[in-house]
Each structure stands twice: as C-alpha cells, then as structure tokens.
Amino acid sequence: MKDNTLQLPLRVLVVDDHRDAAEMLAMMVGMSGATTQRAHSGNEALALAESFRPHLVLLDLNMPEMSGYDVIKAMRQMPCLNNPVVVAVTGWDDRWTISKTRSLGFDRHLTKPAEQNDIYDIVLFALARVQAGKSMLATA
Question: Which of 12, 61, 77, 80 has the highest Cβ tally under 10 A?
C-alpha cells in the first residue's frame, strides 16, 4: 500500500461556489496529509488567502460575482503570497479555456470531476515547489 502522507506541511485553499464540490475536493486533498481551507466565493478566497497563505490553490473558474480568472489576477498581485501553485478546476476543457488559464498564470488545468490520482499528482507538484523554495532559502 502506498503511503500518501506528506513530509512537509502543505496549505491548500480550495475555492468553489458549490459547497459540496469544495468539500469533496478538500477531502480528497486532505487524504494526502495537507491542511485545507475552503472558500465559496472569490472575495472570500482573497481574504482567506491573506491569512492562510496557501502553497496550493485549487480554483473554480465559473463563480458568480468574481470569476476564477479575476481571483488569480488579484492573488498574483498580493505581496503576502509567495507564488502559490494555482490550479484551474473546471468543467471546461476546450482549447480556448486552457489557453486562457495558461496566459493568466495558472500552473495547471484540472477538468472536473477530479480524480484522486490527479489531485495527488498536483499536491506532489506543489510540495516539490515548496521544498525547492526552502532549499533555495537555505543556500542563500
């Protein structure tokens, strides 16, 4: 049996206006050993990101009032965040959407419904970035 426990604390912010979807995604991420927080709107995500300072953000694109596109633009301008991995989590998998997410600075694009293996791979990707950042600080 594979051990899915992370060696470093990883903070993950799950953002989805559908509460059940956010809860399910947070549960899947939590199975890897990461600490999760959930937000159900763009404004809530920005406020929570400032205090929680996530290493990884799983961000729904289609939300009322503030889209995931607007959220990532705002997050990338927040000096308190240390360049978190941001993943678009959406039902849209067309070329235009994927191109737009890349151009706005999303690190990955995940099509709903998310599979546990895909979530685990994204968590490992984020963890590798965190570890690389810590090792660069140690050598500075």
Answer: 12
In whole angstroms, give the CA distance from residue 79 to residue 93. Answer: 31
Separation CA 15–CA 68 (nearest Å): 9
Q: Can you give the pTM of this predicted structure?
A: 0.89
AA identity, residue 77: Q
9 preceded by a cis bond (ω within 30 of 0): no
pLDDT at 69 exceeding the cut of 70 = yes
pLDDT tens figures, 89-132: 999 999 999 999 999 999 999 999 889 999 999 999 999 998 88
